[in-house]
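Two entries, shown back to back:
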Amino acid sequence: MKIGIDIEEVKRFKALIKNRAFLSRVFSPEEINYCLSKKNSAEHFAVRFCGKEAVWKALSNSKIQITSVSFKNLNSGKPVVLINNKKKSKIQISFSHTKTVVAAVAIVED
């Protein structure tokens, strides 16, 4: 088992998300639509970025780019990990966020 964790400050993303080029470089169109549909979109963008970092760290694979990692929520609300748009059931992700700080933990099963 491998573990990755990341923590970010939301205020950093309040400015970054105004840059559409940044959004399209880092997030999938589905992630952008999901986050923009939320009242506090900066929190949602920040936590997804945090999740991408956590997955990348857990994989310890420099061949996987952070932009290859994305997330989709199941009907239950649970996020699932996609790499190059393919669901990865051996990677679990957990997000947590407040108005100021976000965190994500990724676990990769062997």
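entry 2 starts here
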Amino acid sequence: MARKRRTLSPEDQALWDQVRETAKPLSSRSKLANSTAIPTHTKPVPNRYQIQPLKTGQIRIPKAEPKTRLDLAPDPMQRLADAPVRTDKRTHDKIRKGRLKPDAKVDLHGLTADRAHAALTSFILRAHAQGHRLVLVITGKGRDPERDHDAIAPRRGILRHAVPQWLAQAPTAPLILQILPAHQRHGGGGAYYVYLKRVR
């Protein structure tokens, strides 16, 4: 059924007639038309997120995100390896190459810092009193940064960093001649050689 067309009331018709008389038609070339026209020859803005077509046989591999590692403390192993030699060169080379067997060892791996510090101090004092010269301190390598992506976690290997500092303090410092990173056969990056002074 067709809708009935609505007609204007006499008042609305009179008002519409007044509007038509005062209105002026716009020219197709008026300033308004030119200012609002969309330019047809503009240079396209490059979109860096636009997907570019690939050439035949080309495979696009996304770049891997860099792994974050916030371990700002210097490696204690490297610092000790670069330290001045305090033993005779022959003994130093034998220790560094793992050719001397340690007289005793202590394993601190898995202990809390407080327990490890106490165990280390007791071990060094006892080893020196027994006349041992070369002892091995095992700390473990700590957390693996390749598997742990927690950016705010503690640095890798708390004991690995702390042991050289503890050994440089009293009462153990006066008893120690040299500290070196252990050879791979004795624990590598997770252990230290401690060369003690002779008992006098």
